[in-house]
Please model this.
Amino acid sequence: MTGYIPTSKFFYISLSTKISKKMTTIASYKMHDEYITRFLDILGAIIGLILSSVLFLIIPILIKLDSKGSVLYTQLRIGRNRRRRDSGRIESDLFKINSDEDRRKSIAYGKPFFVYKFRTMKDGAEKKCGPILASENDPRITRIGRILRCNYLDKLPQLINILKGDMSFVGPKPERPHLVNQFANQIPAYVERFNVRPGLTGLAQVKAGSGYDLEDVKEKLDYDLAYCKEGNLKSYFSILFLTLVQSLSLRKEIR
Model:
């Protein structure tokens, strides 16, 4: 009979409609949370800069007394990528790195930006070895740098990155292009961590600590992907609280 739809088809159409509405609702909640967390990021960064203004005077003096070199350290990192492909994987961008010596091309999986930090390593620490992960008892780290890292104080200048929108308070750790390319080639799911803004702290940092080899990177990635998929306001505040507890505990681990 023309126009007749079997009962089973009614069921599937109804189920498909319900699933579609549920997915739309979930997406709406995620977008709502994102707007709120961005507002909290801006507010928190402003308050943080005001409260830590004295440290911005003291820390540079300690760094200069401890070792030669600049006080602030800037480094190219990879941030969020909003462009998606059909499978939900992040599409690569080709960008140029400008320097006084040359113009080099590198593949990035997100928007490149310069991160700000208080210098914690010896001046020119990576000239010989190149960009590598920090290791336990890393000899490149200065005495003051070790203290700053243990208490997250080296990241205070990243409050400026948060204000600019490059970062959030909570999210995956922003990595360097060289390491991103390396990990993305060895771990296919690695690019999924760029679905959200990188963070000053994150679930991987508070749960898995430092990563010294590829296996550690894979473990931390599991936490990063969990936050990318399930992160909400509750987890945002929970991670901030755990970070504060770890910072006040004067832990000796180097990130």
